[in-house]
């Protein structure tokens, strides 16, 4: 199909200093959890985006010196020759598809805790970065940089730039954002200096200008130089000579870099979950850039709609469409737009499991794209699945797992029949995506259904509850059971052990709400799942007008949501809706009128009034259907259990499991062997 001419602006080449990008799709630097210890994994992950049409593909942060050490968070380095060879694998993979490769040179300053290098963190004035935030809590207080430290910082960037060019990078970043060292110089809260680097805006900008010059001179103008800056705090600050300090800073630097890459200040707003921020949410903060500088500007906003992207360029907000999450969810997004296949885009759902992977210290995982991070280790391609099989597969259950298994099995060449008991496909998502803020999560089902409907070797059977006899009568060669899990009414005991539920009226689970039951108010939601669902249900019930209390075993609402950047939004939503919040408590009793609570640490006992109790606690997997078939002794048919039925989990786990089930169907176990990556060896002997 031909490209929609409306999207032509996205495919115009653009000069970025001495380099030219072939189009406007720019994979901005983003964390992947892939350090130099896994250089082939990283190269394949980034190279896949170049294959999918991104004009520029960047690394995540690459430390310029051991005084910027983010451990235990995964962080790349560009400290020595072994690092050059490790990065060169990635630039080769990117260049192989005609894309430019960028590297984000990074010094974290006071926001780099240096747990491994044990060097005192550096800072303009000794002000710690978020000192009671869990990620920074154990830090020693930062050292105030003297003139020698500033000279050294500039030299580290220059040296790193030389190595980066040797590694084959085209675009070299100076990173003045997200609390990292050059950004701390820009903000008067962190910069109290009285020398040439502190005081006036002109002085605070000096370090960034010198870093840009040093990087440019080190590579003699052969590489493009980009400046990545956070804008939220600066934009909120009045300036005597411009509309805000952000305008003033950009005005002073307007000719210094070849490219501006603009973003927010805090991860929860920069990489905001779709639950609380729409596509393009950065625009009000960064929309002034083109009025101050003539240099190209790239920015992000979880852009998945080509109309929004083209509009950004047409309206003069951005020159290049930055993508981090959309490029993870669909590395082939540019190619699909180019070929007029917008319907095939696997749109990011904004769940932030990818950023949670980084917080977990592991390679990136993606809910929508189960192949992310597995391009090299498992040789999984997000678009190409080898047609290596014939035969028939019956999949029972049309939730996220069944849909993913069906799609992957069909792409492998199997004839696929997908039977779902309900009238609609989508499983748990039918309920969950109807909760406040979770509409975009339905894309997990919609994308797969859309693809399945285009395939000739797929038959979809809604309204088809299957019994063991039905399955055997169907006579497929392979059966995949993906019948999901059930929420239980079990409570939370000592050491988080499940304890038997209570015998009381009006105790409900999410499954009961999904079936349409509405609790009587006042209602309490007891959450010891501690991810998104408990707070989303509390929001939902409050929106129905019920007086709602949210009780959690955690110290904060949806405590694990700190990993997905949902925590601030969850608290704001509960507050806005008047939901009473009770933390660090367990429910010990309920009689239909009063709930007994105990504090998880002190044991202190409290009571609150409620007519109904919704328990968002644990799910039970397993499948009676699977058990009956497994016990049937029919060895002409292979049988697999997948998704929540096999092991209840987040969507990311369920989709991955199902993908793996379908990929390995009818193959010997040795085919599933994982390749092991390792660091590029040092050339100099370790003394
Ligand atoms: P998962 O996340 O593993 O996909 P879900 O609970 O979202 O699990 O989806 C499971 C789906 O399986 C539900 O839509 C449910 O209606 C369907 N299902 C369960 N048992 C049967 C059955 N015996 N026959 C057909 N569909 C079933
Ligand atoms: Fe988007 Fe979720 Fe995938 Fe991240 S994990 S890229 S937010 S779909």
Compact overview of the structure:
The chain is of the alpha/beta class.
Describe this structure in words.
By secondary structure, the protein is of the alpha/beta class. It has three domains: 11-360, TIM Barrel, CATH 3.20.20.70; 392-485 and 622-669, 3-Layer(aba) Sandwich (Rossmann fold); 487-620, FAD/NAD(P)-binding domain (3-Layer(bba) Sandwich), CATH 3.50.50.60. It is built from 23 helices and 30 strands. The strands form eight sheets. It has an eight-stranded parallel beta barrel, surrounded by five helices. A five-stranded parallel beta sheet has the order 16-15-14-17-30, sandwiched between helices. It has a five-stranded parallel beta sheet with strand order 21-28-22-23-24. Helix 1 links the parallel strand 3 (25-27) and strand 4 (56-63). Helix 15 (400-411) packs parallel to helix 23. The model has no long low-confidence stretch (mean pLDDT 95). It binds adenosine-5'-diphosphate and iron/sulfur cluster. Iron/sulfur cluster binds next to helix 12 and helix 14.
């Amino acid at each position: 199909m031909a490209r929609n001419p409306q999207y032509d602006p996205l495919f115009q080449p653009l000069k970025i200093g001495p380099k030219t990008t072939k189009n406007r799709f720019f994979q901005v630097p983003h964390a992947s959890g892939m350090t130099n210890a896994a250089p082939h994994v990283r190269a394949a992950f980034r190279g896949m985006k170049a294959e999918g049409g991104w004009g520029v593909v960047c690394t995540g942060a690459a430390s310029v010196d051991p005084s910027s050490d983010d451990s235990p968070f995964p962080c790349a380095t560009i400290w020595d020759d072994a690092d050059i060879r490790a990065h060169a694998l990635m630039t080769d993979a990117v260049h192989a598809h005609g894309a430019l490769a960028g590297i984000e040179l990074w010094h974290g300053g006071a926001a780099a805790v240096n747990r491994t290098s044990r060097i005192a963190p550096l800072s303009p004035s000794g002000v710690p970065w978020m000192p009671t935030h869990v990620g920074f809590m154990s830090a020693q207080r930062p050292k105030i940089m003297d003139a020698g430290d500033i000279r050294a910082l500039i030299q580290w960037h220059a040296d790193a730039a030389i190595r980066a060019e040797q590694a084959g990078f085209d675009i070299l970043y100076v990173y003045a954002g997200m609390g990292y060292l050059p950004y701390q110089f820009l903000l008067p809260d962190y910069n109290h200096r009285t020398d040439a680097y502190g005081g006036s805006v002109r002085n605070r900008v000096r370090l960034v200008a010198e870093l840009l010059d040093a990087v440019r001179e080190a590579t003699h103008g052969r590489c493009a130089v980009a400046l990545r800056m956070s804008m939220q705090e600066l934009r909120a600050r009045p300036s005597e000579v411009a509309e805000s300090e952000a305008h003033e800073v950009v005005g002073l630097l307007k000719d210094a870099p070849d490219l501006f890459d603009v973003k927010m200040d805090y991860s929860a707003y920069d990489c905001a979950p779709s639950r609380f921020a729409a596509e393009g949410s950065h625009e009000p903060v960064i929309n002034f850039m083109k009025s101050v500088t003539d240099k190209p500007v790239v920015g992000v906003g979880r852009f998945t709609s080509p109309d929004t992207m083209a509009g950004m360029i047409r309206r003069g907000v951005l020159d290049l469409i930055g993508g981090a999450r959309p490029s993870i969810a669909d590395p082939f997004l540019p190619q699909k737009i180019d070929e007029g296949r917008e319907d095939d885009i696997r749109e990011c759902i904004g769940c932030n499991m990818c950023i949670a992977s980084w917080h977990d210290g592991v390679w990136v995982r993606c809910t929508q794209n189960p192949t992310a991070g597995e391009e090299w280790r498992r040789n999984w391609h997000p678009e190409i699945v080898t047609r290596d099989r014939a035969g028939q597969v019956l999949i029972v259950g049309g939730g996220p797992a069944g849909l993913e298994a069906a799609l992957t099995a069909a792409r492998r060449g199997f004839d696929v029949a997908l039977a779902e008991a309900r009238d609609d496909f989508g499983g748990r998502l039918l309920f969950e995506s109807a909760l406040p803020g979770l509409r975009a999560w339905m894309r997990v089902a919609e994308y797969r259904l859309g693809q399945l409907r285009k395939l000739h070797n797929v038959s979809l059977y809604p309204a088809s509850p299957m019994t063991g006899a039905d399955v055997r009568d169907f006579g497929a060669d392979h059966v995949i059971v993906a019948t999901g899990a059930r929420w239980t009414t079990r409570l939370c005991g000592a050491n988080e052990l499940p304890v038997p539920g209570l015998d009381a009226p009006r105790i409900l689970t999410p499954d009961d709400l999904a079936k349409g039951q509405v609790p009587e108010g006042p209602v309490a939601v007891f959450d010891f799942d501690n991810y998104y669902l408990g707070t989303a249900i509390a929001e939902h019930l409050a929106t129905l007008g019920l007086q709602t209390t949210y009780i959690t075993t955690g110290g904060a609402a949806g405590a694990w949501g700190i990993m997905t950047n949902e925590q601030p939004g969850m608290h704001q939503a509960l507050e806005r809706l008047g939901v009473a919040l009770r933390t660090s408590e367990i429910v010990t009793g309920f009689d239909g009128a009063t709930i007994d609570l105990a504090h998880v640490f002190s044991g202190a006992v409290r009571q609150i009034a409620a007519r109904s109790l919704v328990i968002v606690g644990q799910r039970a997997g397993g499948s009676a259907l699977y058990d009956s078939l497994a016990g049937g002794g029919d060895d002409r048919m292979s049988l697999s259990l997948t998704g929540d039925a096999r092991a209840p989990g987040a969507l990311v786990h369920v989709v991955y499991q199902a993908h793996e089930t379908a990929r390995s169907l009818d193959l010997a176990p040795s085919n599933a062997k994982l390749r092991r990556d390792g660091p590029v060896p040092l050339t100099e002997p370790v003394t």
